[in-house]
Specification:
- It comes from Micromonospora terminaliae.
- This is beta-N-acetylhexosaminidase.
- Keywords: Glycosidase, Hydrolase.
- About 35% of the residues lie in helices and about 10% in strands.
- The protein is α/β, with parallel strands linked by helices.
- Helix 9 runs parallel beside helix 10.
- The two termini are about 35 Å apart.
Length: about 575
């Protein structure tokens, strides 16, 4: 699928002007109650099937009421693992969030353009804004997405595919983990340094997301890891803008080849600050020259690769718009992202339930975000307040109708680009071909930062790990056994694993080999004669590590970030 949203700017502007003049006199309709579903799309003028996506979007926008337009720019989360049947606790959560009991009722009441699936894992740095989880396994996710689409199909905008998004970044931020092929982290891909391997792996990921009914991935992370950020960390492809750019482009091409839209994030670059935008407003103090040279290239690469969406970040970028979070900055989103980087696709906010966005009420925050240049409002903390705030602003003119129509037209254009692709069967998940793509990328990532290249461990091995990593320790032990290495509970050559959030206290002084399964900075304090990095703790990464330890594979990766006192590799250049 070839997708180039940058190329439609001139035609799009003319189209928007035409739509605004044609819709401005339409009377406003009352918002329907949850028990009164919106009229079916058959009551509106049909959209031209088979036409250019922008033309189909234009035709559909011309039929929509104000409330339908407002709903199309909202993409909240919901409670419950089913669209129509939820637990009492999930129903209570939905009522507090949106005044309805189920996700399907939320879609109907607010004419929603999409929904984000949420969840978290133990090492997830984004867990603070994940109020619930509604992803358990692929079969459940597919049933949920089918139910959401059934509800959305009855809306006036139902001719356009409903957006179902999630943060499937791989590594520490992976929403759906059971029954799917788990890729190594982006930092591991950066260490491998082979965009073709990245593209193949992310194409497998796209096929699996599509099979579960997910058509928008809030990935890849385009942030250059210029600081030792724990909130970005191994979610980034590395510290070098050129390397990260090639990797971002590969991931975008892979996802979108399978009909899943890619949303590169977090513009203008969360890797330039170590602070966490979930809890505070991080300051990006670098000069504009540094932004141009370091932060922007991976976003530019993602745009050139055809990325359908870009996610804006809650960052105070002093060199461009001091004091204003980028999510709400017209200078950054409209002047820089669209005007200078040439992006014409959908701009999506980061979670509006994060602290920097909550300085305003949900309604005011939504209006400010749209006026700045966002097209989709993600994870508002109150759906009804955001919806009502947008309608009120449209009525009093503080949200120009031209801006709303422009946003909806972009959203619907993206939807029609994703249309007419049947979802693959669930049997494609975790297939041998997909596992091979993940394994190839994981194998190319393994890096030796101290010790002789290809030096296997001698004698029996005892695998240890920092607290809470027993499953990963067992996975490596199994992989070593399969590779012909004897593993003993104690007394063997110690191979010690450390991961996300670990520091010097988690190292073992008696370990012969220490392995970093997340960012490798912790290795600077390790005393082991052999230091390795996998940047990831997936089964594929542990299998690749075992092959190196057994002397059956050469560690060809290069650390994509600088580790104090250590080279990028001791295994060649």
């Amino acid at each position: 699928m070839s997708i180039s949203p940058r190329r439609v700017g001139v035609a799009f502007a003319a189209l928007t002007a035409l739509l605004v003049s044609g819709c401005s006199g339409e009377p406003e309709r009352p918002r329907p109650a949850p028990s009164s579903p919106a009229p079916a799309p058959s009551s509106a003028a049909p959209t031209p099937t088979g036409a250019d996506p922008a033309a189909r979007a234009a035709a559909l926008v011309a039929t929509l009421s104000d409330e339908d337009l407002v709903g199309q720019v909202l993409m909240p989360y919901a409670y419950g693992s089913s669209a129509t049947k939820v637990s009492p606790g999930s129903a209570a959560g939905n009522r507090a969030l949106a005044g309805v009991g189920t996700p399907a009722e939320m879609v109907a009441k607010y004419r929603l353009g999409g929904l984000i699936l949420v969840g978290f894992s133990a090492d997830d740095p984004t867990s603070g804004n994940q109020a619930t989880t509604n992803v358990d396994n692929p079969k459940q996710v597919r049933a949920l997405t089918d139910g959401l689409r059934a509800a959305a199909g009855r809306l006036p905008a139902g001719a356009a595919p409903f957006l179902v998004g999630t943060d499937q970044e791989y590594g520490v931020v992976t929403r759906i983990t059971d029954g799917v092929t788990l890729l190594p982290s982006p930092l591991a891909a950066g260490a491998a340094g082979n965009p073709a391997l990245t593209e193949a792996a992310w194409r497998a990921a796209g096929a699996e997301l599509a099979a579960m009914g997910v058509n928008l991935d809030f990935a890849p992370v385009a942030d250059v890891l210029a600081t030792r950020s724990t909130v970005i960390g191994s979610r980034s492809f590395g510290a070098d803008p050129a390397t990260a750019s090639a990797q971002v482009a590969g991931a975008v091409r892979g996802l979108q080849a399978e009909g899943v839209g890619a949303a590169v994030k977090h513009f203008p670059g969360h890797g330039l600050t170590a602070a966490d935008s979930h809890t505070d407003l991080p300051v990006v103090g670098q000069s504009r020259a540094v932004l141009d040279r370091v932060a922007f290239p991976p976003f530019h690469a993602g745009i050139d690769a055809g990325a359908m969406a870009v996610m804006s970040a809650h960052l105070d970028v002093k060199a461009v718009d001091p004091g204003t979070p980028a999510t709400f900055s017209h200078k950054l989103l409209t002047d820089v992202l669209r005007g200078q980087l040439g992006f014409q696709g959908v701009v999506i906010t980061d979670g509006m339930n994060m602290a920097p966005a909550k300085r305003w009420s949900p309604g005011e925050a939504a209006v400010r975000a749209l006026n700045a240049g966002n097209d989709l409002i993600l994870m508002t903390p109150n759906v009804g307040q955001a919806y009502d705030g947008l309608r009120a602003a449209l009525k009093d003119g503080s949200l120009p109708r031209t801006r709303l129509v422009e946003a909806v037209t972009r959203v619907l254009t993206m939807k029609f680009k994703l249309a007419d692709r049947p979802a693959p069967a669930l049997s494609t998940l975790d297939s041998p071909a997909h596992r091979k793509a993940a394994a190839d990328l994981a194998a190319a990532a393994v890096t030796i930062l101290r010790g002789r290249c290809g030096s296997p461990v001698a004698g029996p091995v005892t695998v240890t790990a920092s607290a809470g990593r027993d499953r990963t320790r067992a996975a490596l032990a199994d992989a070593l056994t399969a590779a012909g290495v004897k593993v003993v509970p104690s007394g063997g050559t110690v191979v010690h694993l450390v991961g996300y959030g670990d520091g010097s206290k988690d190292l073992r002084a008696d370990a012969t080999v220490t392995v970093a399964m997340d960012t490798p900075y912790v290795l600077a304090g390790a005393k082991s004669p052999t230091l390795l990095a996998t940047y990831s703790s997936t089964r594929a990464s542990m299998t690749a590590l075992a092959a190196v330890l057994a002397g059956k594979a050469r560690p060809t990766g290069h650390s994509p970030v600088k580790v104090s006192g250590l080279p990028a590799t001791t295994c060649g250049t």
